[in-house]
Design brief:
Belongs to the nitrite and sulfite reductase 4Fe-4S domain family. Its cofactor is siroheme; FAD; [4Fe-4S] cluster; [2Fe-2S] cluster. The chain starts with a strand and ends in a 13-residue tail after the last helix. Helix 1 packs parallel to helix 9, helix 14 packs across helix 16 and helix 21 crosses helix 24. The relative contact order is 0.06. The protein is of the alpha/beta class. The chain is elongated, with a radius of gyration of 31 Å. The protein has 26 helices and 39 strands. The chain has six domains: about 170 residues, 3-Layer(bba) Sandwich (FAD/NAD(P)-binding domain), CATH 3.50.50.60; about 130 residues, FAD/NAD(P)-binding domain (3-Layer(bba) Sandwich), CATH 3.50.50.60; about 70 residues, Orthogonal Bundle (Arc Repressor Mutant, subunit A), CATH 1.10.10; about 55 residues, no CATH class; about 110 residues, no CATH class; about 150 residues, Sulfite Reductase Hemoprotein, domain 1, CATH 3.30.413. The strands form twelve sheets. Strands 5-2-1-9-21 form a five-stranded parallel sheet, covered by helices on one side.
Length: about 800
């Protein structure tokens, strides 16, 4: 017989615990869940989106009834537990059911706090906690015009904005001097108020409500100073209280909440508790991420896995109300020993404040520009010392770009989704072990991106890094805008926008700084649109392109010098060997593109290695024209019909260092045997007796796409001409991060062929390519080796160790 595991509470924390148990040992328990509401488990955080007409109730259901059935879970719904006999291990529900247990988990959550003032029970007074509360608010908005939200905290402001979008005249009443006083300091709170007032919300701060007026239904409020306000609806959003009454009656130790130890055990055997109802080390939590962390600890303990003790959580708050972005984490109160670093940009409405104690981050407040939030939060969680970071740039490493949030470079234990406590490692393991291929699948398995959604671009970046061309590119830019690639490009040309900042401002991107997904895309589009006016924004490129090297899983890098056409000589081989030996390179390998790669190189060694190699980069890390793979050709092979290696070298010399929407691979085979797999290259050449067959749109990778025959030409010059024309047409019409195979499917092969078959159009495209790349086709490592500032800033090199061409 399986042990009977009973969960009291069908909310987010409890059901997440059950999911964690099923993940570890699905056959261990017979599980029963007892719930109070008449719904299956849903995402309470998304209620504000329902109120704001962004989502429906069905869309916020995270575990439908079929999930309970599929996992053989007994759900007792709309029948709350009212009694627990710990001696008999028996639970009694409101409707009289008797439910035995072997192990019992309290996940009863919390109650919304209702002010104990006259009139609080009148019709039209509601909390904002459940689906039913939300439905009542929306129904009231359809009948009435005025609403008051009591409470200027996170949930209260989201409720206020939602009611305003429902057509109501909304006033927020708040007891404190500024909004969200427990998460924001005064300056940030006042900035938030100003922005929300500009959107039509009204505020009464430092007002204490003493009475709710009206007969059967609310008609107004009276305040402590004697003033009043008329209203048809009152929403109470002034905090929560742990729902611990049942636990206290059962004999559990209860202070503010149910007292638990580091393994979520209560004072009674076989009874556990997690979520908003518990008190751990004197603290209670009302945010989701800590509750999920507790669930992982308890799931380990209940399935016989050695559990790491729960040590409490560092919490954060992220809010976006109609364009107002804020981020808060940790301790932001000016207590003894707490110092701060502050930066205020009154022109753009941005504010950053980092609280420091003992050389470590203790708290964070960001308003306006919040892209640094995850970086600061992870520094705080790890207890990272900040002595070597620049305070003037708000704890930004020397030379590091502001807002640098390339998730690929993060450690696995760093948090990507703060709402749900999901780390980079959780996402990577899900992609690798469960074959996840899109953001929705990652969200379903790990919960990343299923709450506020701000981390979705980072999840997409991890998918693209892990799966490459296995990820289908979206036709849109990112979550910052509804505009797709063509619409963005049209506006760039029409309004003559020449910087990313101009694009984000003029096209009304939700994030005025862009995000990790749209910044590199917009930078590329500007490079294509106005190559002579737009200055490439290095800080917008992904980490590999900023560092000019592929970052590896352990944080080291690869060095892959270019060997045009795959050809090398003894001097190059000797030099590579000397460098590999001198710098203790752990792996030297022939790459798939017939180059020799050095792997495991330390970041600070990169400039010196490139200087000593005295070779140019193959750009194996870039969205650009890559190396040309060739066979030995007719000069050595008895089957060869043309000089494939010589043509490959000419192609590389002509087009190397040219940026493209995605990597652009070329192969030249000297005969139809196609030893270099020309048929799965973006641009493939198969040499025949009478010339060169040109194939386009082939891709290898997780989804192999066979290239299609474009034409057959007689001369090498024609091959190079077609290649240049294809490159520029792809640059001008491709979606950033879109390989040529899906690009050609989107445009249609015949349409692409029609363009490239026109000699005058090819000439125009090549001229445009030459103009666009004239000043930008250069080896990036030559610049790095010759610039001491870049070495010091990007590669963290001590000035005594800097190298230059003349050394």
């Amino acid at each position: 017989m399986k042990e009977q595991l009973v969960l009291i509470g069908n909310g987010m924390a409890g059901v997440r615990l059950v999911e964690e148990i099923l993940e570890r040992d699905p056959e261990r328990y017979a599980i029963t869940i007892i719930g109070k509401e008449c719904y299956p488990n849903y995402n309470r955080i998304m209620l504000s989106n329902v109120l704001q007409n962004k989502m429906t109730v069905d869309e916020i259901i995270t575990n439908p009834y079929t999930w309970y059935e599929e996992n053989n879970i007994t759900l007792i719904n709309e029948d709350p537990a009212v009694g627990v006999d710990a001696a008999k291990k028996l639970i009694t529900t409101e409707k009289g059911l008797k439910v035995p247990y072997d192990k019992l988990v309290f996940a009863t959550g919390s109650h919304p706090f209702i002010l104990p003032i006259p009139g609080s029970q009148k019709d039209g007074v509601v909390a904002f906690r459940t689906i039913d509360d939300t439905a009542e608010m929306m129904e009231a908005a359809g009948k009435h015009k005025r609403a008051v939200v009591i409470g200027g905290g996170l949930l209260g402001l989201e409720a206020a904005k939602g009611l305003q979008l429902q057509g109501m005249d909304v006033t927020v009443v708040h007891l404190a001097k500024w909004l969200m006083e427990t998460q924001l300091d005064e300056r940030a709170g006042k900035m938030l108020q100003k922005d929300l007032e500009a959107q039509g919300l009204k505020f009464l701060l430092e007002h204490a409500t003493t009475e709710i007026l009206g007969e059967a239904r609310v008609t107004g409020l009276r305040f402590k100073d004697g003033s009043t306000i008329e209203t048809d609806l009152v929403v109470m959003s002034i905090g929560i209280r742990p729902a611990a009454e049942l636990a206290r009656e059962a004999g559990l130790e209860v202070n503010r909440g149910i007292v638990v130890n580091d393994f979520m055990e209560t004072n009674l055997p076989e009874i556990y508790a997690i979520g908003e109802c518990v008190e751990h080390d004197g603290k209670t939590y009302g945010l989701v991420a800590p509750l999920f962390e507790q669930g992982k600890v308890l799931a380990d303990a209940l399935t016989g896995i050695e559990a790491k003790p729960y040590q409490g959580s560092k919490t954060f708050t992220s809010l976006k109300v109609s364009g107002c972005d804020l981020y808060s984490a940790g301790n932001i109160m000016d207590t003894d020993g707490l110092q701060s670093i502050e930066a205020y940009d009154g022109v753009n409405g941005n504010y950053k404040k980092v609280f420091i104690k003992d050389n470590r981050i203790e708290g964070i407040v960001l308003y306006g520009e919040t892209s640094d939030g995850n970086r600061y939060y992870n520094m705080m969680k790890k207890g990272q010392e900040i002595a070597d970071l620049q305070s003037i740039a708000i704890l930004q490493a020397a030379g590091e770009e502001a807002g640098s949030d390339d998730v690929v470079a993060w450690d696995d234990e760093e948090t990507v989704c703060g709402c749900n406590g999901v780390t980079k490692g959780d996402i990577i393991r899900g992609i690798r072990e469960k074959g996840l291929t899109n953001v929705a699948e990652v969200g379903k398995v790990t919960k990343a991106g299923t709450s506020c959604g701000k981390c979705k671009p980072q999840v997409q970046t991890l998918l693209e890094h892990e799966l490459g061309e296995g990820v289908t590119a979206s036709t849109g830019i990112c979550s910052c805008t509804d505009l797709n690639r063509d619409q963005v490009m049209t506006q760039i040309y029409a309004k003559h926008l020449t910087t990313s900042a101009d694009v984000f401002k003029e096209l009304h991107f939700a994030n005025p700084e862009g995000c990790a997904k749209c910044r590199p895309a917009v930078n590329f589009y500007l490079n294509v649109a106005f190559p002579t006016e737009h200055k490439d924004e290095r800080q917008s490129r992904y980490v590999n392109e900023r560092m000019h090297a592929n970052i590896q899983k352990d944080g080291t890098f690869s060095v892959i010098p270019r060997m045009r056409g795959g050809q090398t000589n003894p001097q190059q081989l000797l030099q590579i060997a000397k460098v590999a030996e001198k710098y203790n390179v752990p792996l030297v390998k022939v790459t798939g593109s017939q180059r020799i790669g050095l792997y495991g190189v330390k970041k600070q060694d990169l400039p010196a290695i490139w200087k000593e190699l005295d070779m140019v980069s193959s750009q194996a890390y870039a969205k650009a024209f890559r190396s040309v793979k060739t066979c030995v050709g007719k000069n050595f092979c008895r089957f060869g019909t043309q000089d494939s290696m010589g043509l490959g070298i000419k192609l590389e010399e002509r087009f190397e260092f040219i940026d493209t929407p995605h990597k652009f691979k070329v192969g030249v085979s000297a005969c139809p045997r196609s030893c270099v797999e020309s048929g799965v290259k973006d641009f493939g050449i198969i040499c025949v007796e009478n010339g060169y067959q040109i194939y386009i749109g082939g891709n290898g990778g997780t989804e192999v796409k066979e290239a299609q025959l474009l034409t057959t030409v007689e001369t090498e010059a024609e091959v190079i001409e077609y290649c240049g024309a294809l490159l520029q047409y792809y640059r001008e019409t491709g979606i950033y991060a879109e390989r040529t195979a899906p690009w050609m499917e989107r445009l249609g092969f015949e349409a692409v062929k029609h363009i490239l078959s026109d000699a005058s159009k090819r000439k125009d495209l090549i001229e445009a390519l030459d103009v666009a790349t004239a000043a930008k086709r250069k080896d990036p490592w030559h610049e790095v080796v010759g610039d001491r500032d870049i070495q010091e800033k990007l590669y963290s090199i001590d000035r005594r160790e800097l190298v230059t061409v003349g050394d």
